[in-house]
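dude i think i finally got it to work??
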Amino acid sequence: MNLIRLMRPSNWLKNIFCLLPLLFSHQFFNTSLYSVQALMFIAFCFAASAVYIVNDLVDVDVDKLHPAKCTRPLAVGSVNKTSAVILCVLLMIGAIVLSISINWKTCVVIIIYLLLNIAYSFYLKHIEIVDVFIIALGFVLRIYAGGFATDIVISKWLAVTALSFSLFLAFSKRFSEFKLQEEQDVEIRPSLRYYSVSFLSSCLSVSLVLSLIFYSFWCFTLDSSLAGSPMVFTIPFVLFILLKYMLILENENVSADPVIVIFNNKQLLLAVLVYAVLTVVILTLT
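look at this
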């Protein structure tokens, strides 16, 4: 049970980014692609869990002093380092084997993801701005992995939308950590000393606006006619979700994990579900 907790399965939901190419290419109900997408999803779950373990191994002493991370298996000693290393290696091998069984491109993406995040765990997370971009690139790599797995070409507008939205999530993570650090008067991560509330708020605003602009461009490019694609009707939902998320960050003491933030707010969760259903319906019928 503790080994499973060490893998952080609750965070596997982030790997749905692998499925976005299937959805946004009007092939969501193409069942012939389900098996390969499932393999890609599982491969990224393994890779992500391996990265989480590496990060926990590197930060085990720091996590013991963290108000929230002190309950993690390595921090409390319920899992020893040897077991964690063995599990980490097995997960990495599993991720690489599954990805290479799909094609060489997905394997390259997995290896890049692993190398970037190992470098992040040991060094890059201590460098301001770079740390945020590494987090964001992880989501973009998931999308390209999904595209390579199914031979779906990723729209450039969709790619920059994903990058902007990922930066929004990454800056929101740093914003939550900064607020927690100020309240607890404990240094959570060294890179936070270079940030401020005003700077992080500005970054959130910029990434929010860019996400909306790029998403809108993507929606309009789906149909060259004057009427445009019905996907334009999803833009208000995206705007609501982004603004609601930012409002929660500003006014509440929330987790740095976006999955927890969404599931703990009924309005935000409902908006995300409505957007997801509306998107599936539109892209299926058009």
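The chain has a mean pLDDT of 87.
im so relieved honestly
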